Structure formats: structure tokens, C-alpha cells
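Chapter summary example: a protein plus benzoic acid.
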Amino acid sequence: MELRHLRYFVAVVEEQSFTKAAEKLFIAQPPLSRQIQNLETELGAQLFERGSRPLQPTVIGRFFYQQALKLLANAEQLKSITIREGRIERTLTIAFGGSLLFGLLPRVVYLFRQQQPHLKIKMVKMNAMQQIDALKEGRIDACFGRVRISDPDIKRILLREEPLMVAVHSSHAIAQRKEGLSLADIVDETLILYPNLPKPSFSTQMKGLFSEYGLNPQNLTVVEDIQLALGMVAAGEGLCIVPESATTMQFKHLEYVPIIDDAAVSPVFLILRNNDESDYIRALIDSVYQVYDLEAIKYDRIIF
Ligand code: BEZ
């Protein structure tokens, strides 16, 4: 006796007719009748009242029907639990440029984790050049970064252009410019840029931004990372330009002032292998957009 015999029997009981059951099961009626006869022979029991119209199970047939329903339900449950629990665990490794950790990155990845419970997600901090090599070698699957690096094997998806702000000590006059200032207003200040290695990086982007406006800042200090840069601003060493989302980093006496120049933005990219169009990547992009929507952040949705 196989599960299919139970299914056939259940269909005949429920349809009260061999003809209707055969239609429901998409088989011809003679083989269905034969299968039920074989079942009765195997069980040594008569399962249907002979000549009854509509067809009725016997007392033992009713008992067999109840048990068959339980067995079929158990088999279904066994199948779905095994498929669910036995799914091969996939790992998605996401790299990120350091400063993104102080912005939306944790929220995006947390949301993505909740929405992909079967996926193991690993995060690694990497600079822009390391990200490209690691992607090409398959050590990571996706990266978030700010640096424009082109490579034939890599695709870069622009998620948004994030406004820039100036971090300044609260005692400095420009800390009062709540309405915003332009790059020309800070070109003669001591500017603390980050990171110091390797190039291209956010610090090279900032130098490029000044040149775009024909400005050439002279007093530059380049430090290791954003925490160091902001700590130095809080200590009164100078000013620092940061993406708006980094304003979550707070020090005593540290203020943030918007930069009003149109080009004073920093891109946020999702960087992938050229041939990667997996559903996980689609879901990751969707998590980014969900966070943008929650934060009322403007962006142009890409179709992936
Ligand atoms: C963003 O700030 O736009 C961002 C940061 C990390 C991941 C995705 C988006």
C-alpha cells in the first residue's frame, strides 16, 4: 500500500463516486477502480457498500478513511518541515566602507536579516580597493561604498547622493550658521580629512570637490578614520566634512552645519559582480529602499 492508494481512496469517499474522483485525480476511471479493488484485496476488507448510490464507505471503510486522512496530513507535514529545516544554509558576505557603519548600514542589514531568516549574513569592513578584489575573487557578495572605481567585472549601483555637512566645535563662529554655508566659507580653515590610506577614498573625493569650485584648501590634516577626525574636531583641531548620516556620531561640543553647494554630496553605491542577479541581492536593495522610505530619504529607484 502506497500513499497514492490512500489519496485515491480519500478522493472516492469525498466525491462519493468513482467517476468524479477520477476527474479530480486526472486519471481514467477503470484504473482508479482497479487500484481500489487491489487495496481491498491487500487489506482483506470491503471498503465500500456494493451498489450504494451515492457511493458510501462501509464501517471499516469509514475507519480507514479517518486514518488515511491523518496519515496523509502527517506525510505533508513531514515533507514541508524537512524541506524547510533541511534547506542548505547560504551565506551572504557584505563588505562596507568604514564610515557607512555610522549611518544607515546597521538598519539596512538588520532589516535584511529579519526578512531573510534562512540566510547567514556576514559583514566585513573593507576599503574600496579591497572590496573590488574581494568581489572578483568571490570572497564577498556585495559591498556598500562611496568611492567610484570602475572595473569591467564589477557593476556599481548608485543608491543615492547623500548631502554633506561640516563638523565644527560649538565655540567656532560657523557653528552658528545653522542655515548652512558654502565650501568657500571654510577653504581657509584647518580641514581634517579621512581616511589617510589607500586612494581613491573619501578624502580624495573631498579634495576633488573643492577643486570643482576652483578652491584650493591649504591647511589639510589627513587622519585614519571618521571617529578620529570627529574627535579631533571636538578637541578644537579644525573642521571636518562628513556625510549627513554620520551626524549620529556625537561628541560634547560637536556641531554639524549643512553645506549648501549643489555638488556637496557623496554617492552611496551598492557594488556587485557583473553577473550577479540573485534574488538575495534584489531583496537587499529592497531593504535599502524600505529604510529610505521610513526615513523619507529621496532616491531614484533602480529596476534590478
Ligand atoms: C545610505 O546611507 O544610503 C546607505 C548606507 C549603507 C547601506 C545602504 C545605504
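Key point: The pocket of benzoic acid is lined by residues 100, 103-105, 108, 144, 159-160, 162, 245, 268, 288 (CB under 6 Å).
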